[in-house]
Amino acid sequence: MLNGDVYDVRQSAAALCFPTEALIDGVSVAARDGTRFANISPGDGRCLGEVVAGNAVDIDAAVAAARAAFDDGRWRDQSVRAKKAVLHAFADTLAAHADELALLETLDTGKPIGDASTVDIPLAIDTTRYYAEALDKIYGEVAPPSPTRLSYAVNEPLGVIGAIVPWNFPLHMAMWKVAPALAMGNSVVLKPAEQSPMSAIRMGQLALEAGLPPGVLNVVPGTGEVAGQALARHMDVDMIAFTGSGVVGRLLMRYSADSNLKRVSLELGGKSPQIVFPDCPNFEAAAQAAAWAIFYNQGQVCTAASRLLVHCDVKADFVKRVIAVAKTIVPGDPLDPSTRFGAMISEAQMNTALRYIAIAEQEGAERLIGGSRVRQDSGGFYVEPTIFDAVNPNATLAREEVFGPVLGVIEFATDEQAFAIANDTVYGLAAGVWTASLERAHTAARRLKAGLVWVNGWDSCDITMPFGGFKQSGFGRDRSLHALAKYADLKAVTFTLGAAA
Fold first, then answer.
1. Is residue 225 among the annotated active site residues?
2. pLDDT tens track for 3-13
3. CA distance 22 to 57
C-alpha cells in the first residue's frame, strides 16, 4: 500500500483513525481534568487532533495500575514460555498494523513515509522479536562450590518502569525501552513525546490485543514539564529510562534525588565526528555516508555525524563529493514515497536550526550549500541540507548539538590532531573513521571517547550491539542483551549447608 504513488498514500492517511486518549489499566481514557493539546503535523502545519494532556493525577492512576499489575504477578509470574509467546504475538500484531503505524509516524513527525515504513516500524518490530527470544537466554549465576555453602545470584524485575521517549523515532525508541522492560517481567508507564504521541498510544492498544494483561503497559501522553516530571518524581516508580536532551536528563537526576532515588538510565545528545583519513578505501562510499549521516531524518538523530573531519590532503576533493550527494537530497512531501528528506518536527525546531545557521555565518564559517527554509507554501517546517566549511573547532557549530540538517567541515593534518578535535566535546555518543589501515583503525577505536565507533561505515550495527554513550551523552545501554540488566535487580542467595543437622 505505501509503495504506491502519493495519491494512494494520502488516501490511506485520510482513512486513519487518530488515537488521542491515554491508556491506563487497559482502558482508553481522557485526562481527569479534561486537558488536551493540539497535535500539529509538521509536514503541512495542520492540526491532526486534540490529544490527552496527562497530569500528575493521570500519572498517579497509571502508576497505580502498573504497580497493581506487578504486585499481583499477572505478568511478572508468568512462565518464560508464556511471556515469550505474548511478546511474539505483540510483534506479530505490530507487523499486521505496520502500514497504519508508519502513516501515524509520518503524519506526527514529518519524516518520509519511505523511512517510516521500511526502517522505523520494521526496526521496532524486530526489537520486540529480539527481546521475545532473549528472555529465556538470561541465566543466574552459581558461586564456586563450597562444602559449607550453596550460593547463587538471580535477576529479579525492578517493578514499575517509567519510560520517557523522544519524538525523532517515536515507536522505535519506545520499543528499545518497553520490550526489554517487559521481557524482564516489569510493568511500564510510557510517556511519549508530546510532538509524536500517536504511534505509542496505538502500540499500547495493540499490546492488549496481543494478550499483554491490562495494567502492564500504560501510555500517558502529555508535556514533559507536567506528565514527565510527575512520572520522574513519583515515589512508586522504580526506574526512569529516558532518551532525549541533556537539559532534561539533568532534571530527571534531580527528580530522582528529590523523590525515592529511583534508578535513571539516560541516552542523551551527541556531537559525533566522522573522520576521513587520506587512505580512505572508498571515497564515494564515505561521501555518501558523510551526507546521510547528518541529513537522514532531517538531521534529527542523536548519533548524527554533525562534524566532518577531513585530512587536508584530500579535503577539497572529498567535500566536493559530499556536496554532490547533498544536492540530490531535496526536501519533499513526507507522504510521497519518493521523498527521502522531509520536514523538521516543529516550527520551534526549524527555527533552532536556522538560528545555528545564522550563528555559523556570524562566526566566520563558509556556507557551501543550503541554509534556508524551503517549502513555505506547504505550511510545514522544512530546512534544506546545509554544509559549512572552515568551521573552527571552538565555534558554536562545532560545540553545540543543532539536531538539524547542518554539517560542519573541519580540516586536520595529523592523526593526533584528528583525535584531539574529535574528543574535544562534552559528548561521547558515536564516532566514525574511514581508513584502509588496520593499525590506524584500531588506534582510532581505542583513542576515540565514544560509546559507538564505526570503521568504514556509519550506523553500521544492529539490535545485537549495545547503544549508549560516554561523558555527557549519558549512561546505561539500550539494545543487545546488556539492556536487560538495567531493568533487573541482582539478588544473591546463600544456603548454609548442614545448619539444620
1. no
2. 678 878 889 88
3. 12
